[in-house]
Design goal:
Elements: H1 2-33, H2 39-74, H3 80-107, H4 115-121, H5 124-138
Helix pairs in contact: 1-2, 1-3, 1-4, 2-3, 3-5
Amino acid sequence: MLYEWVKAFHVIAVISWMAGMLYLPRLFVYHCEAEVGSKQSETFKLMERKLLKVIINPAMILTWVLGLWLVYEGGWHKAGWFQTKFVLVLILSALHGMLTRYWRDFANDRNTKSQRFFRIINEVPAILMVGIVILVIVKPF
């Protein structure tokens, strides 16, 4: 029964992480339009910081901790679908790191990326999520 509870909280953490990963780049798109030092820019900085520190970072940590426990308890580490999923989650985690770096750039008024760049980046978590969900549910190999 513990396994099912851990899995439920893992899914909740994943949903929270993904929500943040989809929303943060969208905030960056709008932040690009704001003049440096403006009230709008400062509001975006606050929103981005709270989203990252209060939702995205804790959700990612919880996702990893609970996910690794599930892998250990379920013995999934040798399954081909899991190994592929693991690579996709590593890529998603690297993207999380990139978004954190872009957040710091915005926080320090040093953003050099365009709205177009962030619009494209905004699609990457969704694509990774589709792959991860298919691998977990279908287990094609």
